[in-house]
Write a structure and sequence with these properties.
Shape: elongated
Structural class: alpha/beta
Low-confidence stretches: none
Strand content: 15-25%
Radius of gyration: 30 Å
Order of helices and strands: HHHEEHHHEEEHEHEHHHHHHHHH
Helix content: 40-55%
Strand order of the largest sheet: 5-4-3-6-7
Mean pLDDT: 82
Number of helices: 17
Oligomer: single chain
C-alpha cells in the first residue's frame, strides 16, 4: 500500500521534532490507535450490517452501543483503545480479541527474555525500563507456561524409524524438590539423534532425581514407543549398566563409549606436569588402525605408566567391550562417533541458559527453559559436518543388519 504525499503532508503537519513523532503522545502512537479503532469499527459494521451513520434493518434489534476503553500493552507502552460494542454482546472482534491485553508480539518478547535466562523479576524490570510497561509476575508465568503445551507436543511427537547415531548424556541442574522443599542436583537426560540425512535432532529431555541405567531404560522405551525401530550406534559415557539398558530396548544397537570421556577420566588420575605426555600416549590407543593394535598400545601404555598411575589402564580395560566397536569403522565414521561433542555442544547451550538461575522452583520451570535452549540450539544449524562420507558406511551397516 502506497500513502500519497498529500496524506503524509497532512499527517506531519505540526510535527516539529522526534518526540512529536515518536514520543509517548506522538503521531505514531496516535496513528496506531486511530487505525486500530477504525478497523474495529469496520468489523462491527460487517457484524451488524449497517454503516455508523446509517440505519439498521427495520426488525433488527442489535445495534451499536458505544465503546469500552481497553488498555493494551505493546512496544509503545500502554495503548488505550476504544473498542466498539453492540447491544446484545454478540460482537467478537478479530483484531483485538476479548480478553486480549497484549499486542505487537509482547508474548514473544517475554518468552525471548525467559529463554535468555532472565528471571521473572528481571523480565518485569526490563519491560518497565524499556517499554514503560508494568506487568505482573502472574502474567509472565501464564505466558511462559504456554511453552509447556508446546513441550508436551514436542515430547510425544513421532520419531524416525531409524537413526544411524544417537548420543545419550545427562547433566545436572539445581531444582527445588516438591516433597522435601530442598534444592537438589537433578539429572536432565538428553537424547540427540542424527537422522539418515545427517541432521541433528533432539529426541527428548527428561528430568529425574539421579542418573541411572534404570531411568535410561525408560528413556529407550519411550523412544521405541514413539516409533524408533532401530539405532545403529549409541554413543554414551561410562555409566555402569548403560549398555544393558540400551540393548534391552534395541538389541542390535552397537554401544560405543565416548573416547573423550575415557581420556578425561584418565587425566583425572595424573599430575599436571604429566597430563600432556599421558594424553599423547593415550592417543596411540584410540588412533590405532584396529582393536588388536589398540590392545597392544594399551599394554605399552600400562608398561610405561602403570607404576605411576595404576588406575588408568584398568579403567580402559573395564570399558573395553564398548571401546572396540570404534575400530570397526572407517575414519569418516570414527570422526563422528569419536566423542559426544555433538551433545556436549548442546549441553553448553543449556548450561549457558541455566547458569544465570541459581535454582529452579519446579521441574516444569526447568523444563520450559531447557526446551527453549534446545529450540535455539536446533535453529543454529542441524547438519553434521562431513556426513556425506559417512552416510554410505551407515547404509552398508544398516543393510547388513537388515539382511541378517
Amino acid at each position: 500500500m502506497t500513502i500519497s504525499k498529500d496524506v503524509l503532508d497532512e499527517l506531519l503537519r505540526g510535527v516539529g521534532n522526534a518526540n512529536d513523532l515518536l514520543g509517548e503522545q506522538g503521531l505514531m502512537k496516535e496513528l496506531k490507535v486511530r487505525l486500530m479503532e477504525r478497523m474495529l469499527g469496520a468489523e462491527l459494521t460487517e457484524h451488524l450490517g449497517y454503516e455508523p451513520d446509517g440505519e439498521p434493518a427495520t426488525l433488527q434489534d442489535n445495534r451499536r452501543n458505544g465503546t469500552t476503553r481497553k488498555t493494551l500493552k505493546g512496544n509503545d507502552g500502554a495503548v488505550p483503545i476504544d473498542v466498539p460494542r453492540d447491544r446484545d454482546g454478540s460482537f467478537q472482534p478479530e483484531l483485538i480479541k476479548k480478553g486480549q491485553t497484549r499486542i505487537d508480539g509482547m508474548d514473544d518478547k517475554i518468552i525471548g527474555l525467559y529463554a535468555a535466562g532472565l528471571s521473572t523479576r528481571d523480565i518485569r524490570s526490563h519491560l518497565e525500563e524499556v517499554y514503560g510497561l508494568r506487568v505482573s509476575a502472574d502474567l509472565i508465568s501464564r505466558v511462559t507456561d504456554a511453552v509447556l503445551a508446546e513441550v508436551s507436543d514436542w515430547q510425544s511427537r513421532a520419531l524416525e524409524p531409524m537413526y544411524p547415531i544417537v548420543f545419550l548424556d545427562a547433566l545436572r541442574v539445581k531444582i527445588r524438590d516438591a516433597e522435601s522443599r530442598q534444592v537438589k542436583n537433578k539429572a536432565v537426560y538428553v537424547a540427540l539423534g542424527v537422522t539418515p540425512e545427517g541432521e541433528r535432532e533432539v529426541l527428548g529431555l527428561w528430568i529425574a532425581n539421579n542418573e541411572g541405567a534404570k531411568f535410561w531404560l525408560s528413556v529407550m522405551n519411550n523412544l521405541r514407543n514413539r516409533g524408533v525401530e532401530d539405532i545403529l550406534i549409541a554413543v554414551v559415557d561410562g555409566l555402569k549398566g548403560f549398555p544393558d539398558a540400551i540393548n534391552a530396548a534395541f538389541p542390535e544397537t552397537t554401544v560405543q563409549t565416548c573416547i573423550v570421556h575415557l581420556v578425561r577420566h584418565s587425566l583425572n588420575f595424573c599430575g599436571w606436569k604429566d597430563r600432556k605426555e599421558v594424553a599423547k600416549n593415550l592417543k596411540r590407543i584410540y588412533q590405532a588402525t584396529d582393536d588388536a593394535e589398540a590392545a597392544k598400545a594399551l599394554d605399552d601404555f600400562e608398561a610405561e605408566w602403570g607404576d605411576k598411575y595404576p588406575s588408568i589402564a584398568p579403567s580402559w580395560r573395564r570399558a573395553w567391550q564398548e571401546v572396540i566397536p570404534f575400530f570397526a569403522f572407517p575414519p569418516a565414521v570414527r570422526k563422528i562417533i569419536y566423542t559426544t561433542n555433538a551433545i556436549e555442544s548442546l549441553n553448553r547451550v543449556i548450561r549457558k541458559t541455566t547458569k544465570t538461575r541459581g535454582s529452579f522452583p519446579t521441574d516444569d520451570a526447568a523444563t520450559k527453559l531447557i526446551y527453549l535452549a534446545i529450540r535455539s540450539f536446533e535453529k543454529a544449524g542441524r547438519c553434521v559436518r562431513e556426513w556425506v562420507a559417512a552416510r554410505n558406511q551407515f547404509a552398508i551397516l544398516y543393510s547388513e543388519r537388515f539382511n541378517k
